[in-house]
Amino acid sequence: MGKMDEMIVVAPRKHVFHDESLTFQGVVSNHERVATIMNRINRHFSEMRRGNAEEDETYKQPIPYVVIRKGNDIYAYERLKGGGESRLHQKLSIGFGGHMNATSSSDFKEMLETNTERELHEELNFDPSFIKGTKTIGLINDDENDVGRVHIGILSVLDLAEEATVTVKETNQLSGMWLSVHQLSETETFERLETWSQFVIDILKKAS
Length: 208
Hints:
The chain is an alpha+beta fold. It has 8 helices and 11 strands. The strands form 2 sheets. Strands 1, 2, 3, 4, 5, 6, 8, 9 and 11 form a 9-stranded mixed sheet that branches. It has a two-stranded antiparallel ribbon with strand order 7-10. The model has no long low-confidence stretch (mean pLDDT 94).
C-alpha cells in the first residue's frame, strides 16, 4: 500500500471553521478561539484515504506541529537533497509531526497525543525523561497555497531540560541544529524557513 492509500484523520472545513466564521490566515493563538476550533474538530472528524484528502479542499487534515525548545533555543532541521520532495530541499523547519491516523480512542485530544508521540519517536532520538512539559499554543492555517488549503496545523511546544540531547534519525535526509529565536528571525535564515515555521517564529518572538 502506497502512502496515498493510507487512511488519515480529516474534518469537514465547513465544520472546522463554522462556515468560515472562524477562518484565519497564519497562526491563531487566542486560547478561546483555539479551544473552539479544536472542539469542532473533535466533534466532526472522520477518516479518509490520504490521496483523496490531498485533492479535496472541502476537508482539513489536522497535523500535529511540535516545536522542541530548550531554554531560548529551538531545534531546527534542514531537509537534505537525499530526502523526499525536491521542493523542500535545503529548506529549514522547526516543526515535527505528520498526518494523523485513527486510534482506538474516540477522543481527538487522546488521538492527537498518540500520533504526536509516534511521530517524535519515528523522527528523533531523545530521552523522554528530560521532557519538562508540552503545551498547545495555537493553530496554523495557510489558505494561500494548494498544500496549505487542505491542512490545519496544531501547534505545540515541547520544553526539554537543559541537559537533554536531540538528534534526527534520518541523517541522510535531515540535519538538525539548535538555533535561538533571534537567529531564526534573521532575514537570511528566516527566508529559508518553510511557511508554517515562519508563522510560528512570529508567535515565538512575541512570546519571548
